[in-house]
Amino acid sequence: MVVHGPAETLEEAARMRGIDPAAVIKTMVVRRSDDDYVFVLVPGDRMIDWPKVRARLDERRLSLADGNEAFDATGYRPGTITPLGASREWPVLADQRLADREVSIGAGRRGWSITIDGSDLMELLSADVADVTKQAGVDDHD
Predict the structure, then answer these.
(1) CB under 8 Å to 126, separation ≥6 — which residues?
(2) How many alpha carbons lie under 13 Å from residue 65 in its C-beta half-sphere?
(3) In angstroms, rounded to a whole number, what is the distance separating the alpha carbons of residues 2 and 137?
(4) What is the pTM of this model?
(5) For 54-99, how does the pLDDT look when each residue is reduced to its tens digit (9 = 90+)?
(6) Quick one: pLDDT at residue 138?
(7) Phi, psi angles (nearest 5°) of residue 63
């Protein structure tokens, strides 16, 4: 467990944790349908590639949960969301770039994180690991 204090940006969080921004995991709560969610783990320097995620989950329609939805689904407020210790166990879909490297994931409280081998984390979470992200800033009009 690393206690580093709250950060305003992902880059600041990475600096406080002493790691590359790509190793910071962004935990996204994606809604498949009413009361059906999946955690999508995204490297800090990337973003969800919606066509890839829809294909991997075999879903036509997906959306990001808003802050209240995410809280109801996980027990965590935005900025503290993690699949670790969430109030409900949702499936985890993790980008393949998080495996085989040291990563940092939020620990459920602002300013707290856990640094762990990405492959070990994926195993711990029984994550489906696949290519589900794209370079940040790439617009596919989706």
Answers:
(1) 92
(2) 27
(3) 29
(4) 0.92
(5) 999 999 999 999 999 999 999 999 989 999 999 999 999 999 999 9
(6) 63
(7) -150, 155
Taking the C-alpha atoms of residue 45 and residue 133, their distance in angstroms, rounded to an integer, is 10
All structural domains of the chain: 2-134 (3.90.960.10)
Strand ranges, E, within the chain: 2-3, 25-33, 36-43, 46-48, 63-64, 92-95, 102-106, 112-117, 128-130, 133-135
Taking the CA atoms of 90, 96, 100 and 105 in sequence, report the sign of the dihedral they define: negative
Residue 137 has pLDDT above 80, yes or no: no
Tell me how far apart the alpha carbons of residues 4 and 15 are, in angstroms, rounded to a whole number: 10
